[in-house]
Specification:
alpha+beta, 5 strands
Length: 134
């Protein structure tokens, strides 16, 4: 594992810790937008930069189009975090994350479904062009 991959892995662990803290505070059952606001604040308190609702450009025949896709959180300009608050969405989250990773040319994404009693059951990790072990 090279230094960039190790740093990215460490960043994802810090983001997961922040997600767990938000879940401890709020529990399941709220809207996705509430978790997004609280997670953005938790990341800021931890000194981790992030942007919310980042547009995902779609390229068609050399033109950049705004197709209305948005990343819930872009952490440190290199980690996509997609939030959910619903039942049974893991395959949808994986597909969405992989598409966003490819469009944004980024290596790693986390799907976080807050609609679980134990947040660990709602975590999905998706890689784009990286070894699965990072």
């Amino acid at each position: 594992m090279n230094l960039d991959q190790a740093e990215l892995n460490q960043l994802s662990q810090r983001v997961i810790a922040a997600c767990i803290e938000v879940h401890r505070e709020l529990g399941p059952g709220l809207l996705e937008s509430a978790y997004e606001l609280c997670l953005a604040r938790e990341l800021a308190l931890a000194g981790i930069p992030c942007r919310c609702q980042v547009p995902v450009p779609v390229f068609n025949k050399g033109e950049v189009l705004d197709a209305g896709y948005r990343i819930d959180l872009l952490v440190d300009e290199r980690l996509i975090v997609e939030l959910k608050a619903a039942k049974g969405v893991p395959s949808l989250v994986k597909a969405q994350l992989l598409t966003y990773l490819k469009l944004m040319k980024l290596p790693l994404g986390l799907g976080v479904n807050f609609n679980h009693v134990r947040l660990v059951d709602g975590l999905t990790r998706v890689v784009n062009g990286l070894p699965e072990g990072i």
